[in-house]
């Protein structure tokens, strides 16, 4: 029973569902009050403490039980929903540097790195990014470095909250487990990638690029077979460099990393054959999933352009849930029909799924610790800075009239401050003062530099 709930956990489940419902209602409110978020967070933490106790008891009893363990527990799923939403809310109010905000990011990285495993609802974002890379095998060591750096930043955030006793121990335990899981998977990827010799590294890098190009071609509404044939010819050229099935060094020795590179080569061949054999792209059974992923990818790509101006972190929740639902229909990394037959179109769907996860991660990782009340001001200052840098790039001399509009805009923003602070509509001091003030000062500095080239109008 995938949604089995032990009787002793039912009261906790009801309490968590109530918290989740309140968060979903708050998500629809376009003016989030940080006090509301903190209050719900504290209530959720109390329920979370009860859940941890129950899960520890259950874990012990399941270890002693001869019956198969319950893989998906409804309480776990709802608990995960609650803390993902809370994590997004903390980011929305500018508290990116606090432990609750890193939960959803840890969930995203792991899934992108690994993907041949069945994805559960409890592993969503840094987790999903890592899982996807592991599944496809299409990555280079350089591409792992940003994830490594982000995990180090998250570890520092968790450590700081632990030293300050600002987060309950049971919550830190959960975050540490997620962090450890991500680090373990990342280390496995580094170890696997480091086994590839320098001789084979260029070949592996090109195969990674070809695999991604094939996925991108297959995701098009229409594509030409010639596009596939060109890549197929390149694969044959790479394959032709092997001697007795092995890639050799210049001295005739067999460099390490054969299994990874040859495996990647074979996967590229499989992708080519699948795309050529099925110009329809995907089977009829997978068409609804394909259409859904195309829609999600299109929406997310638009957000990468507009999210700084229109989207809140909590708006990503609906995309995360839909991706989890689609991911959850896979078995051993593939989509099957009711009879257990593998369906045509795996390459395209996996590419689209991985692409969507990566876009979500990119949006989350670019989020700055600025509360929503300050986002419009930050956006205006970023625009002014961009225009000032363009003016600076073209060079002077300038007239006072040409720079007056920028001076007026900066002055109008500066006048919004009260006692040196930007306030929200309730008179509170929202998070992100330092970032906004740094932007304002940077704009003033550029403007002052431009004024040094002012000439008198004739």
From TrEMBL:
An example of a Gene Ontology cellular component annotation for this protein is: nucleus
Task: List, alphabetically, the InterPro entries matched.
Answer: UPF0662 (IPR018810)
Q: Which residues form the signal peptide?
A: none
Q: Which Pfam families match?
A: DUF2408 (PF10303)
Full protein name = 2704_t:CDS:1
State the organism of origin: Ambispora gerdemannii
